[in-house]
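Q: What structure does this chain adopt?
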Amino acid sequence: MDEYDVVVVGAGILGLSTSYYTKKKCPKIKILVVDKLNSVGQGNTALSASAFRCLFSSRTNLALAGSSINFYKHLQENLGVDLGLRFVGYLWLLSETGYNEAIQILRRISEEGIEYKEYDGKELTQRIGLNTELTGDQEAQLMKLENVPRGVLITKAGIFDADKIVKFYEEQFLKLGGKIKYNVFVKSLITEAREPLGIPGEPYFWQEARIAGVNTSEGVIRAKKTVLATGAWTSQLTDDIGIECFVKPKKRQIFPVECKSSNLRELLHAKGFNKYNCLPFTFLDKPRIYIRPFPESGKFWLGIADEFPRPFRLEDKPLAEKSFYEYGTHPVISKYFPQFKDAHPTSPFAGHYSVCTIDNHPVVFEDKDLIVVCGASGSGIQKADAIGRIAAALYTDEDYAILYGGKRFKVSNLGLQSRKTEPEKLII
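A:
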């Protein structure tokens, strides 16, 4: 029977960043990462839109994302680690009502030293062909679509390669002597009495119990500490032992569109927003449809953060819904961007957000020798470095984690008992 100091379940971005920083803090301990898939980051990490932003309504998420982005920038620009990092910016398209609500967020990020630039509707029409005036469009009125008289560009934002980032943490973890096993399915967590008496059926309710490892497709793996970095699948394991993590899965879909027409190619290579002369990562305020550019391969990804009545439900093999594009995403996006009028997706796909139902912030807590690291609510990759450092500090029983750049972050702020966050309102 294998036994480790730490077993980490999940080789996605949060599992690998947690493993790396824990091993870095404690070089002598034995850490094993297990994952049911056959390679690193093949779960929802691989299904991410692979974008980053310093654009959140809460200071907590600004701190997590800001320090992580600075670290990724340091890796690429100073250490020569290619992460596909491109500061193309985030272009936020706003109705008048949306702008009045957004100004509070913009003032908040301005206080943090994050710059933004405003555009009026006329500029947006000239630059990207945006249809800002929908008042006379009966179909648009039927869909309750609003005019877009303003746009805001956040410059500390852009796109990256999620696969390259997770592989960086994998490589560094292995260099430190960590171990990873793929194709290992975790069936359940092992519970045992902290002081076993050899009575059949232990632990009983009158005994102090703990998590002692995992029961897997390859047998039992025992550990002094067990880390769950299993994203949308976390509650499947924690529910069985009566631990609430306040994280639920929500399906998200992405529809790739190739830029076959000259109009779409012109939109993709929109000039004047960034040094790459490409359209920024662009999203509408309501409904929150986003456009993710791929200037090198000549395509866009279209997605949307649909909430009600999208269920909290885990799908084993989630599939994109053809009707969701034809009757949902496409009619809306083509009203604002006529360039997409005849665009049809190729190879659409779907994954899950691991949504923290408390406040849309990550969850990092320990209970009975089980450490839970999840609930990033769709923005885990862009906050992964900070989350990994916080989880490692929790393992070593430190009150504060030191994020990249030297900022101290109180570990318990992402826990459950002494949680201290502001609800995040800007989920994309």
